[in-house]
Backbone:
């Protein structure tokens, strides 16, 4: 599709010469300028560009922070504080990097849930989808490794808890965790290898992002209607139409990002990470960063170590199976009146799991925040119900509804749907 | 859509839950009362006089047991802080003794210079514990950021000592303080009487509450010395981005006007 | 038709203004945002704060040279013998590659204080091998300095720099103190 009406003619001697040797101008022109893009993409589609920007921000700010940071257990904490106090603009660079991680995850979650809502994982985009999940996993690993580096209490105990996941593996678990630590517990050896890997992984992410965009540019973008592009009337050139729209959305996103960096830079962090690491005392209330909370609740919902860890990883890997678990022929939830409801229920369940992941590890009853109203249900039981529902959603609800549901009628083409909407007669079931 | 409303409710519950995730045992710390602070809000700034008074409280009351090893004397005269004059700052530096090596390699004390950091009262944690009934007075450099609701908490803690309620089992050597997790704290009340610190004419009376507020202000600055620079830059960045986003929005709308979409 | 044409022109102008203004503003914002990433490589505040070092002159005997550290650089403190002082003072300026009188390079003739960084490519001249002029010889590329630290032979273009310093007493010197008029030549060679 992307090659249908594509044309590029080098205009002068230099570009002709270059085009015959390294057609980089042709490549940029084809993939970043003329690339035909469905003309009905909404703002939820701007997060791809925002994510690319955030990756660059994190890599650049990370590279400069690494010029000042010292990965050693006796120096790491103070070196971060030296960045905050003495390095020129160090406070800015560090707050950008620390809050940037959260912004990156906000954008990636919106990007994933948008793709899920509009069925962007379905044929022929399964590989694109799986590459996305690999990027997400790499981001989780990078975020975790980076959180270790300031060597505060949360760094240390977060590293301890997460590396202990691997001790759940039968027979070889203990050896594997010692191998990961390079010691009998998390210590300086662990910190130094985590720093090395934290520096490495973003470049691996960048590599997989290239594959992800490659896989996107073979079939081209999906769109909110979930129907294929039928011809040139359905598309516009990526530049200037989507560069402008993405650019606007990016600036609004940076505005949101700036509010955190300049006015509440520590809100998304944990106060205990300003306490230097102490291997003799675990903080009273240990929680992971917000972006891991739903998974953390899944982990804690099972009283068995190995099962908890497997279930938690399963909760991520199940997304990779989605293209085959979803039996519906229709992509977009715009035309799936039943499945759409379950989409929002799943979102609610994930948020409840996130809430439960932030709670203390006791079996008291759930209390509704602010109101103080206590619900007659234990936190553990609620996380178990949510976890069971989570997996049911993928393994039972998704395949079953795909078979039983009668989707709303699909529009003939993107341009027809657009014109119908414009002329006032609402496009079929254009709700959400 | 009902589901969307439900989602909104759940979302707000989840975020509130993250923010207020606290333990709830019988000796859980009492929530500190929120105070008005000069540096609150988008345009908030430190009160120089308050920081200077707070420094005095730190030096005369806290520094006997608590270090502040991330702060240098030179910081006391830099912009956005207490802004002591260069001469005052040098005099403060010179009033401290810092450890150094002499020509023979022995540890000696020398007079502090602006580049030195505040010396810690104990050479190491073990020595600090030995001198304090096995409790460790934490370094105060980032204490405000290292405690939930730090400024209000520290203010409540140092003014919140009281007699233990009847029936409360207070261990020997510990003090009752409802704002401390477990209600038993090794640190004795640091501010015991009004006028404990004498500061120059023109300042408010040195009540216990005023001294507590001032030292909290000083410690907030110590934990976040670039706060004023950060907020000032933030205001400029936000204004710039608002204008840029407005321009980009108009450009985007103008460009797409000719496209059926 | 004329009217339609005019409207179209106005449209184009306004559209162009929007594009140029937003692209220009984005470019300016990007350029401003680059500065912190560049400036972070400049010396940090704690590094800059290490600007002064005090040195006790008592242990030095005439003829002795010691090397101390100031601003992460080596500094020579040399207690010159009367012969060395005389040799330095008697050298005609015409013989010098970088003409400076000895008086302009010292505050007290007995004490010669120099930044021990060869002005060629930054090695530390040897204080054991004093070279052809009794001062220093740089081991890297063979620059000879005299007893005033002035370049006499070899590839170095300038004399060894004099750091700003101040005598706190007869036996104490503060290196890195704010330059006084007597030590202004440090600026030239710093």
Residues:
């Amino acid at each position: 599709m992307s090659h249908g009406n594509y044309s590029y003619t080098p205009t002068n001697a230099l570009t002709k010469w270059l085009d015959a040797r390294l057609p980089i101008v042709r490549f940029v022109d084809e993939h970043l300028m003329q690339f035909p893009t469905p003309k009905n993409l909404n703002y939820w589609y701007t997060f791809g560009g925002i994510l690319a920007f955030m990756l660059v921000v994190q890599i650049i700010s990370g590279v400069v922070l690494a010029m000042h940071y010292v990965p050693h257990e006796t120096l790491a904490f103070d070196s971060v504080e030296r960045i905050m106090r003495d390095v020129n603009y160090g406070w800015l660079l560090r707050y950008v990097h620390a809050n940037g991680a959260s912004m990156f995850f906000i954008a990636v979650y919106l990007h994933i849930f948008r793709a899920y809502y509009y069925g962007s994982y379905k044929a022929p985009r399964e590989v694109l989808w799986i590459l996305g999940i690999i990027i997400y996993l790499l981001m989780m690993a990078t975020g975790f490794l980076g959180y270790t580096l300031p060597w505060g209490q949360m760094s240390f105990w977060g590293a301890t808890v997460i590396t202990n996941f691997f001790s759940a593996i039968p027979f070889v678990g203990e050896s594997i965790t010692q191998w990961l630590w390079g010691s009998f517990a998390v210590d300086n050896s662990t910190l130094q290898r985590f720093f090395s890997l934290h520096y490495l992984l973003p470049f691996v992410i960048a590599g997989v992002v290239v594959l992800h965009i490659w896989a996107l540019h073979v079939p081209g973008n999906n769109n909110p209607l979930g129907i294929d592009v039928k011809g040139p009337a359905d598309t516009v050139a990526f530049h200037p139409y989507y560069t402008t729209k993405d650019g606007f959305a990016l600036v609004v996103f940076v505005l949101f990002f700036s509010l955190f960096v300049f006015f509440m830079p520590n809100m998304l962090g944990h106060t205990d990470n300003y306490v230097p690491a102490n291997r003799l005392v675990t903080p009273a209330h240990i929680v992971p960063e917000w972006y891991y909370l739903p998974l953390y609740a899944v982990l804690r919902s099972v009283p068995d170590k190995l099962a908890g860890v497997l279930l938690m990883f399963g909760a991520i890997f199940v997304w990779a199976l989605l293209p085959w678990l979803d039996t519906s022929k229709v992509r977009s939830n715009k035309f799936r009146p039943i499945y759409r409801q379950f989409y929002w229920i799943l979102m609610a369940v994930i948020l409840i799991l996130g809430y439960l992941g932030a709670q203390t590890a006791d079996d008291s009853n759930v209390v509704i925040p602010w109101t103080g109203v206590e619900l007659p249900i234990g936190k553990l039981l609620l996380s178990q119900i949510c976890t069971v529902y989570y997996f049911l959603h993928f393994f039972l609800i998704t395949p079953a509804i795909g078979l039983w549901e009668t989707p709303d009628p699909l529009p003939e083409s993107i341009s027809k749907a657009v014109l119908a909407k414009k002329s006032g007669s609402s496009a079929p079931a254009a709700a959400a | 859509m009902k589901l969307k409303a439900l989602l909104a409710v759940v979302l707000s519950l989840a975020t509130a839950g993250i923010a207020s995730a606290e333990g709830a045992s019988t000796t859980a710390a009492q929530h500190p009362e929120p105070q008005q602070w000069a540096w609150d809000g988008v345009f908030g700034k430190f009160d120089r006089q308050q920081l200077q008074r707070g420094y005095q409280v730190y030096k005369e009351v806290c520094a006997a047991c608590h270090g502040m090893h991330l702060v240098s004397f030179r910081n006391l005269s830099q912009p956005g802080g207490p802004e002591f004059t260069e001469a005052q700052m040098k005099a403060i530096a010179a009033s401290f003794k810092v450890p150094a090596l002499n020509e023979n390699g022995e540890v000696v004390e020398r007079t502090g210079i602006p580049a030195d950091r505040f010396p810690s009262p104990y050479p190491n944690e073990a020595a600090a514990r030995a001198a304090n009934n096995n409790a460790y007075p934490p370094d105060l450099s980032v204490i405000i950021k290292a405690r939930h609701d730090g400024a209000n908490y520290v203010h409540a803690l140092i003014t919140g000592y009281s007699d233990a309620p009847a029936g409360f089992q207070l261990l020997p050597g510990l003090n009752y303080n409802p704002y401390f997790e477990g209600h038993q704290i090794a640190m004795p009340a640091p501010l015991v009487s009004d006028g404990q610190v004498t500061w120059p004419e023109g300042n408010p009376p040195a009540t216990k509450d005023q001294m507590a507020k001032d030292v909290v202000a000083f410690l907030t600055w110590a934990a976040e010395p670039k706060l004023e620079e950060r907020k000032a830059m933030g205001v400029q960045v936000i204004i710039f981005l608002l204008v840029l986003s407005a321009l980009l929005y108009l450009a985007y709308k103008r460009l797409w006007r000719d496209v059926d979409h | 038709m004329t009217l339609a044409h005019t409207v179209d022109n106005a449209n184009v102008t306004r559209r162009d203004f929007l594009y140029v203004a937003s692209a220009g503003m984005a470019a300016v914002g990007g350029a401003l945002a680059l500065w912190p990433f560049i400036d972070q490589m400049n010396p940090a505040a704690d590094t800059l704060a290490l600007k002064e070092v005090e040195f006790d002159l008592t242990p030095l005997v005439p003829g002795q040279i010691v090397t101390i550290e100031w601003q992460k650089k080596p500094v020579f403190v040399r207690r010159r013998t009367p012969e060395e002082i005389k040799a330095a003072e008697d050298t005609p300026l015409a013989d010098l590659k970088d003409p400076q009188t000895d008086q302009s390079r010292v505050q007290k003739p007995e004490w010669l204080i120099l930044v021990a960084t060869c002005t060629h490519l930054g090695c530390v001249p040897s204080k054991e091998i004093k070279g052809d002029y009794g001062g220093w010889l740089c081991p890297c590329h063979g620059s000879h300095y005299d007893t005033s630290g002035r370049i006499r032979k070899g590839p170095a273009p300038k004399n060894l720099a004099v750091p700003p310093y101040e005598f706190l007493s007869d036996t104490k010197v503060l290196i890195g103190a704010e330059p006084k008029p007597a030590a202004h030549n440090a600026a030239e060679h710093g």
Observations:
- Chain C touches chain A at residues 22, 26, 35-37, 39-42, 44-47 (CB under 8 Å).
- The first helix of chain C runs from residue 2 to 39.
- The mean pLDDT of chain C is 87.
